[in-house]
Design goal:
This protein is an alpha/beta fold. It is 50% helix and 12% strand.
Length: 284
């Protein structure tokens, strides 16, 4: 990601918090509230059709990848969602990069049993205009082709979150109900609840590292460790952030603690230490 792209991503994220307080990270080049060009695209199997429909209050766009477990799971779930919203003004499309062969795409589509049109993004033109980076990702636009929500893949509560955003676009529920869907009160033990929040901070930290902002990644790690000092992924994240800053000795200490808490991390940590040029250090 270039410095300009990173700045645009950060701006889009801030705007998304203002316009849509419940959505996850936005696309790199399109923020919630922005308009999406309603381009005409080739359809898998022949013909062309527009990406969105002005007659639909919710236009659901699913970006997926063949031979990808999470993409397949998402397509299967969206096939069920499509049935649930049958008869309502919801327009569904799945979008795949034109870099894959038709046979690869058909295999995934057939296994998922989706009935919605599958659009081929030739030369990854739409991917580039929207800045799609993660698979799967789901964007929801209104009848004016404005992005109203974005959902990158989550292993927990993903389908419910998308269903809630669609219902919001249909004016069936309000913001308060969407917030409850995004943050359900489930019967989890306190440690489980803390773990869910901690994992979100880890994901945020990983994105900061990808954006070459290790100081912010370190801050995310330390925020987790302030409440749960035995959370191994946070020590691993802190090690990565310190390594990115060239602080290899400090990184080695964080890696050692992470490995002590979770021995399964040993192979990955050994590689990280070699990359930073640091020697193994005793756990703190």
């Amino acid at each position: 990601m270039t410095r300009r792209q990173a700045a645009k991503w950060a701006m889009g994220f801030c705007l998304s918090l203002v316009v849509w307080p419940f959505s996850g990270f936005g696309f790199a080049a399109v923020a919630v509230g922005d308009s999406i060009e309603n381009v005409e695209m080739p359809v898998l199997g022949g013909g062309k059709q527009p990406l969105m429909s002005s007659k639909s209050l919710a236009n659901v766009i699913i970006f997926f990848r063949p031979h990808h477990d999470h993409s397949l799971d998402t397509l299967k779930a969206m096939a069920q969602c499509e049935k649930e919203f049958a008869g309502k003004p919801v327009h569904w499309v799945a979008v795949v990069s034109g870099s894959y062969s038709a046979d690869e795409v058909k295999a995934t589509v057939n296994e998922s049993a989706v009935k919605m049109p599958v659009l081929i993004d030739e030369n990854d033109a739409l991917y580039g205009r929207m800045g799609v980076r993660l698979h799967p990702s789901v964007g929801i636009a209104n009848e004016k082709f404005q992005l109203v929500a974005y959902e990158p893949f989550l292993e927990v509560n993903y389908c419910d979150r998308i269903r809630g955003k669609v219902r919001y676009a249909l004016h069936e529920i309000g913001e308060a109900e969407v917030a409850k869907i995004d943050n359900p009160q489930r019967a989890l033990m306190p440690n489980d609840m803390q773990g869910a929040v901690a994992n979100r901070h880890v994901k945020m930290g990983e994105m900061y590292i990808a954006m070459k902002q290790p100081d912010k990644a370190a801050a995310e790690a330390r925020q987790i460790l302030a409440t749960d000092p035995r959370f191994a992924p946070a020590h691993l994240l802190l090690g990565d952030a310190l390594a990115a800053q060239g602080k290899c000795e400090e990184a080695a200490a964080s890696y050692a603690t992470a490995q002590q808490l979770d021995p399964k991390l040993a192979p990955a940590i050994a590689e990280k230490r070699r990359a930073c040029g640091s020697a193994p250090s005793a756990a703190r």
